[in-house]
Amino acid sequence: MGRWEPDARGRLAQAAMELYIERGFEQATVAEIARRAGLTERTFFRHFTDKREVLFAGSSSLEELLVETVAKAPPNLSPMDAAAAGLEAAGTLLQERRAFARQRQAVIAANPDLQERELIKLASLAAALARTLRVRGAGDTAADLVAEVSIAVFRIAFQNWVDDASQRDLPQLIRESLQELKAVTSGV
Amino acid sequence: MGRWEPDARGRLAQAAMELYIERGFEQATVAEIARRAGLTERTFFRHFTDKREVLFAGSSSLEELLVETVAKAPPNLSPMDAAAAGLEAAGTLLQERRAFARQRQAVIAANPDLQERELIKLASLAAALARTLRVRGAGDTAADLVAEVSIAVFRIAFQNWVDDASQRDLPQLIRESLQELKAVTSGV
């Protein structure tokens, strides 16, 4: 963002994440973040509304990618398959940011307020996905179910990816979770 | 609760709900709630920690019933079928409290803080269900998936029940959502 400091945003995000882990999210200040990134507080506020925004700014681009992929999926795909295409695209995006995603998860896990915020963001992701599925022609209940279930699959695959020592990649874990979803629900 | 005022709790809950709907959750005071119920503020605080507790006190008994039903379900049931038995028990309990459940939903829908609280309660319900499924022998990912998916089914059936003009009962709507879940995931 901004021609004047090409990677200021990335440097600020990285400095913030390090401080959140070293000192805790509550304790870290914007002044410290800016200092560690070698930038000013003013520059911080040009890129982020506040400390929390560093952790959640990515949610909007993730939502956008998910929704666009689902909207543009071939019309003959079932709602679940269209959603799966969206999850895979989101997983591919996050896969490139593994180190950041792991640090972020550790910061959120240590702070109940941030966990609440994450739940709200995930609920909003599910609502956006359900709307997109309705536009594709899914019925109300089917759209809601597929959306909620897809976000559940995504969360669980993401958690396994973050915890995982085996280095499997996130899109692969998402496909495995979708297969397991099919297995666990087939007996209903 | 308490031998001294056999239905004080119920009267307080009903008075609170009426005031939350008439005046909004934020505006209603404990003094007004107690007055409308013909009781004292002290009695209110013997039954509820605060105004919000009136809306969420039922979550604990719902969680308890869900978890106990799943824990005691026949050991040969699959995780999804055991969870379905728990959902049906929870649905049967709520079915008896339809008027209260509908009012409660309207109050929560009007207030973002209460919506957040509800999301947190549902996440805690999913976590409790996942733990119970693990104790029954489900693998980690299967337990998480079944738990998340079950709570999604429950939420959607509950929302349809609250919105529904057709007066279908909640356990029936839960069964229908489970069938639809099977249908939407079978093509994965």
Backbone structural class of chain A? mainly alpha
Shape estimate of chain A: elongated
Largest sheet of chain A: none
What is the average per-residue confidence, as pLDDT of chain A, rounded to a whole number? 91
What is the terminal separation of chain A in angstroms? 49 Å
* Multimer state: homodimer
Radius of gyration based on Cα positions of chain A? 18 Å
Order of helices and strands of chain A: HHHHHHHHH
The share of residues in extended strands of chain A comes to: under 5%
Number of helices of chain A: 9
What are the segments of chain A in which pLDDT stays under 50 over at least 5 consecutive residues? none
What is the compact description of this entry?
With 188 residues, chain A is an all-alpha fold. Chain A is 77% helix and 0% strand. Chain A is built from nine helices and no strands.
Entry keywords:
188 residues; homodimer; mainly alpha
Q: How would you describe this structure to a colleague?
A:
2 copies of one chain form a homodimer. Chain A is mostly helical and 188 residues long. The first copy, chain A, contains 9 helices and no strands. In chain A, 77% of the residues lie in helices and 0% in strands. At the A-B interface, helix 5, helix 7, helix 8 and helix 9 of A face helix 5, helix 7, helix 8 and helix 9 of B.
What's the topology here?
The structure is a homodimer of 188-residue chains.
Chain A: H1 8-23, H2 30-37, H3 41-47, H4 53-72, H5 79-95, H6 98-109, H7 112-135, H8 140-163, H9 170-185
